[in-house]
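BUG: 3D viewer hangs when loading the predicted structure for this chain

Environment: internal workstation, default settings.
Expected: structure renders.
Actual: progress bar stalls at 90%.

Input used:
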Amino acid sequence: MNNGRSRIINYFTLVKFSHTIFAMPFALTGFFLAVKYAGNPFEWKILILIILCMVFARNAAMAFNRYIDREIDTRNPRTALREIPLGLVRPSSALHFTWINALLFIATTFFINQITLRLSPVALLLILGYSFTKKFTSLSHFILGLSLSLAPIGAYLAVTGEFDFIPLLFSLIVIFWVSGFDIIYALQDHEFDKTEKLKSIPVLFGKKNSILISIILHIIVAIIVIYIGVYLHAGISYWSGSILFTGLLLYQHILVKPHDLSKINIAFFTTNGIASIIYAFFTIFELY
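Structure tokens produced before the viewer hung:
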């Protein structure tokens, strides 16, 4: 029993299940936009299927990333204690876990609607393909942002079966927000990535300029957040959430300095996790 429980825990930590907190709130925002903004009926079945899609897609993406990066992770002191380098999860098991979750993702979209089913292979190609990008492009941060940005537009499509302008705006928030904080996170591997000839914004531009680029990306996020509020003629709930959200984005830039990366995990996980929950909560509350 304990061995079985340990294996489950190893897989949960392998895919960093707690990091689902970044995109899940935006998926819920996309769902409630489709219900309240677009005037579709609330269906528990669709909501549950959306959540399952998010879990399966992310599990597949993270397990595949760990599989592809297993040799790099072994050489990197920061990641050498991950599950595959430590032998807690075999590479073949991580790959099997990837394909199982990918198939479950496609199977789940079958029960939603035709457009999500048809687009599911495209989504998988993007989220799995991200794992290769650091080897040939410094734009890998933006590919990650694009992968997570599927959450709000995908959830909206699951309900309506149609594309629309407003969920696209929320997807743009995710692209620039995630790209910005992933650049910050990549700062801690700056020297290692240079040695391994891996591509990233910090490797290309250096730490100081990378932080500046991250700030610019988050300023773009703030502009889109304001535009959405104006576009929706939003009330105090939305604007309160927006102020807190953008304030937390500012806070992470106060925490991280080119010469001091000691608080990078607080900036990366805690601050951004709280920010996404707050923004989604106040946006959904505004809709109701």
